[in-house]
């Protein structure tokens, strides 16, 4: 599980959850994350890009005639942020920043739209402290902006400030109960281990979906919630429905591949993952492809895929704040461990979320710092998240510390949550559990 939304609350407690029922909209436990960079492209990317390109052209022509239209500058900036997400092209970010800052120059006060856009841009670039600063400014300028509260929720989640995230998403729900608000709320319930509530809320996100992209996004995450709970049939059905609506969508293909691998269809999984990574070569998708190729007995192709990740990590523009959780885990598993620790430490400083705590714990374990690793593994699970990988990581850390009972409990929990959680770690979990005298 990763914070992909920019993408989970026992710390909030029952009293706080009870307050999340206002204006007829229940954070129920009957209210995940809003469309991430991959999920924003869930519906026919080409069509969505064409529509946004046309909008950008019209708005640019309008601004040539009316350069003082600060609202149009803000809308143009947000259109570029959306184009970057749909096309996977970060070249749109400078254009977004220029338009949003132009809006602020024209209207320096009370400009919630530009501040919200700059917050969304900062979040897209994984600068969550910047996103928080802009979002707070936007909500102060316009306390009725649901979009501003969405950015505020995202920032609080990634900064590990879960009670504040809960309050922000409740305000967003009160203002506009749409796919984005229900999705964010679903993610918060997932984080605190309430997968039933998270699924119910993601279903609500699907029910109110107002566009093909929103529909496919909700189906994607409903499938992921099912897969993470070990329900392969429901996951497969959700992914199939999403792909029927958006053929070739890379995030759906990658998720369908996980189901195929869990069912033993490694050839089918490789086919889907190759198609997904040809369009969206994220670290997550490439690592999954590498693991499936290894399981399929093709170490040469797995090594080539490993090399692609290493080459991509060295490309310009990869800053500590933007370091991906999956890249930390990649180096922890494949070395060098020191690189995993350095990147994990930088990432934790920028994004102290439970997901980053878990990744940093695994990096420390890889480097042999198991006592420190256990502290962070515990912090990663402090909300009660039902995350099979997080329990596997902590189980192996406990095993290294000779805490056999603790290791046995975590490994059992990992396999109970999702026996198909990883083609790499699943067999290792079963082997370790067998050596401890336990059963899956």
Written overview of the protein:
The protein is built from 23 helices and two strands. By secondary structure, it is mainly α. The chain has two domains: 13-247, Alpha Horseshoe (Serine Threonine Protein Phosphatase 5, Tetratricopeptide repeat); 312-435, Alpha Horseshoe (Serine Threonine Protein Phosphatase 5, Tetratricopeptide repeat). A two-stranded antiparallel sheet has the order 1-2. Helix 19 packs antiparallel against helix 20 (370-380). The radius of gyration is 21 Å and the shape is globular. Mean pLDDT is 88; it is low at 2-44.
CATH topology of the largest domain, which one? Serine Threonine Protein Phosphatase 5, Tetratricopeptide repeat
CATH architecture of the largest domain: Alpha Horseshoe
Question: Which word captures the global form?
Answer: globular
Strand order of the largest sheet: 1-2
- Please estimate the helix content: over 70%
The helix/strand series, from N terminus to C terminus, equals HEEHHHHHHHHHHHHHHHHHHHHHH
Mean pLDDT: 88
Which blocks of ≥5 consecutive residues have pLDDT under 50?
2-44
Query: What structural category arises from helix and sheet content?
Result: mainly alpha
- Main sheet overview: 2 strands, antiparallel
Number of helices: 23
Q: Based on the structure, what is the oligomeric state of the protein chains?
A: single chain
Spatial gap, N to C terminus: 21 Å
Percent strand equals under 5%
CATH superfamily of the largest domain: Tetratricopeptide repeat domain
CATH class of the largest domain: Mainly Alpha
**How many domains comprise the coordinates?**
2
Radius of gyration, whole Å? 21 Å
Tell me how many strands there are: 2
């Amino acid at each position: 599980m990763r914070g992909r939304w920019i993408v989970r609350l026992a710390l909030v407690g029952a009293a706080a959850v009870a307050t999340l029922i206002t204006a007829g909209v229940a954070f129920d436990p009957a209210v995940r994350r809003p469309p991430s960079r991959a999920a924003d492209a869930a519906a026919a990317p080409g069509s969505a890009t064409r529509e946004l390109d046309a909008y950008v052209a019209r708005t640019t022509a309008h601004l040539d005639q009316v350069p003082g239209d600060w609202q149009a500058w803000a809308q143009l900036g947000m259109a570029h942020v959306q184009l970057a997400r749909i096309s996977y092209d970060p070249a749109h970010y400078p254009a977004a920043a220029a338009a949003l800052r132009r809006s602020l120059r024209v209207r320096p006060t009370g400009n919630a739209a530009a501040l919200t856009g700059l917050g969304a841009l900062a979040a897209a670039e994984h600068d969550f402290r910047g996103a928080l600063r802009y979002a707070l400014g936007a909500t102060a300028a316009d306390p009725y902006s649901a979009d501003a509260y969405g950015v505020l929720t995202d920032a609080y989640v990634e900064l590990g400030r879960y009670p504040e995230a809960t309050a922000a998403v409740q305000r967003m729900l009160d203002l506009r109960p749409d796919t984005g608000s229900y999705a964010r709320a679903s993610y918060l319930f997932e984080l605190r281990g309430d997968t039933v509530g998270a699924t119910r809320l993601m279903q609500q996100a699907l029910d109110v979906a107002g566009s093909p992209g929103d529909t496919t996004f909700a189906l994607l995450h409903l499938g992921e919630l099912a897969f993470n709970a070990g329900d392969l049939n429901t996951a497969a059905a959700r992914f199939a429905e999403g792909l029927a609506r958006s053929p070739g969508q890379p995030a759906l293909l990658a998720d369908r591949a996980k189901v195929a691998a869990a069912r033993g269809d490694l050839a089918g999984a490789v086919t889907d993952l190759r198609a997904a990574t040809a369009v969206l070569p994220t670290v997550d998708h490439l690592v999954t492809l590498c693991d499936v190729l290894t399981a399929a007995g093709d170490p040469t192709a797995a090594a080539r895929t490993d090399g692609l990740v290493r080459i991509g990590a060295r490309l310009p523009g990869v800053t500590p704040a933007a370091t991906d959780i999956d890249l930390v885990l990649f180096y922890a598993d494949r070395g060098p461990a020191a690189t995993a620790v350095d990147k994990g430490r930088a990432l934790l400083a920028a994004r102290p979320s439970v997901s980053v705590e878990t990744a940093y714990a695994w990096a420390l374990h890889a480097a042999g710092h198991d006592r420190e690793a256990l502290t962070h593994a515990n912090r990663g699970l402090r909300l009660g998240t039902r995350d099979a990988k997080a329990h596997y990581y902590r189980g192996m850390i406990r095993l290294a510390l000779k805490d056999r009972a603790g290791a046995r409990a975590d490994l059992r929990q990992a396999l109970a949550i999702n026996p198909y959680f990883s083609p790499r770690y699943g067999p290792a979990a079963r082997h370790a559990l067998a050596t401890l005298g336990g059963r899956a």
